[in-house]
Amino acid sequence: MSESHTLIGSEPPMVITYFFEESIKSFGKQPALRVKRDGKWVRWTYAEFHRDTLRFAKGLIALGINKHKAMNIIGFNAPEWVIAFYAGFYSAIIPIGVYTTNGPDACFYIAEHSEAEVIIVENETHLKKYLPNWKKLPELKYIIMYTGTVPTNLPPEYKDRVLTFDEVLKRGDEYKPKASDDSLEARKALQQPGKCCTLVYTSGTTGNPKGVILSHDNYIWTARRLIAEANLDGRPQRVVSYLPLSHVAGQIVDLFCTVGVGAEITFADSSALQGSLVNYLKEVRPTIFFSVPRVWEKIEEQIKKIAAANGPAKRALGND
Question: How many alpha carbons lie under 13 Å from residue 287 in its C-beta half-sphere?
Fold first, then answer.
């Protein structure tokens, strides 16, 4: 076995919270997350990203979400999606992404199968996927919306159990643990490198979705190898987040490789794959762009379409 292979295999195992905090030490003042809302950019530095992650984690504990229980997250890529995901690690709650294309039945199956006590939804559209089945989910305590406002016409039994993201942050600010094992530090200490950090559910094309267990060390090792192989470290990086964060590929690139190198993550809007992605690529000019074959095919088709309108020389270049 070569020395390089020995070094790769001998990297010390690590939990995600430690990995995150090492990045905060290095990149705290650098831009981390940004999203365009009402035509204006909303931004977080890495220090602010870390601050809101801890606030949200404490808010989850304040709501009575038990350790080692699940938190489902459904919605298009957004800073709040990522903050909630990382908050799960600090509060010893297992964050699980759910495909936005899932209907009520698939959402119910994953919530029941994972024993979710809390669900994060983007908006009222996704909230409505859970309301009809809430009575069949006895472990579900709260649903939290990260955009929009809580509907005023909720059934009485759910009126106080649907909260906004900001309300949970505020509860985190006000949280004072009654016992040491209720503290954020105690929850954080429960994390171990080889233990489950998340479940990634398959799309369910054959039967019900299958939950795949992934460990802290699995994610961190994979992210570090990608960073090393692609030579991403040591210079400012920019990423446009648009692939589903419920998928392992989106998580590795957008949630872990980015944090590992202190990249700025710009979140596209939900119409990215219907055409708006190109606008973000032009504005952001990402230094890292990970994609699936179909997106590359669309780019190729557009290049050939443009080339076809040019003269013979330019057309030959475009077709190459």
Answer: 17
Q: pTM for the full model? A: 0.91
CA 219, CA 196: separation in Å to the nearest integer? Answer: 10
| pLDDT tens, position by position, 154-168 | 999 999 999 999 999
34 forms beta bridges with 43, 266
What's the pLDDT tens digit per position in 272-292?
A: 888 889 899 999 999 998 887
CB 234 within 8 A of CB 228: no
Structure confidence at residue 3 as a pLDDT band (50, 70, 90): very low
The residue type found at 68 is H
C-alpha distances out from residue 25 to 22, 46, 103, 108, 217, Å: 5, 9, 41, 40, 20
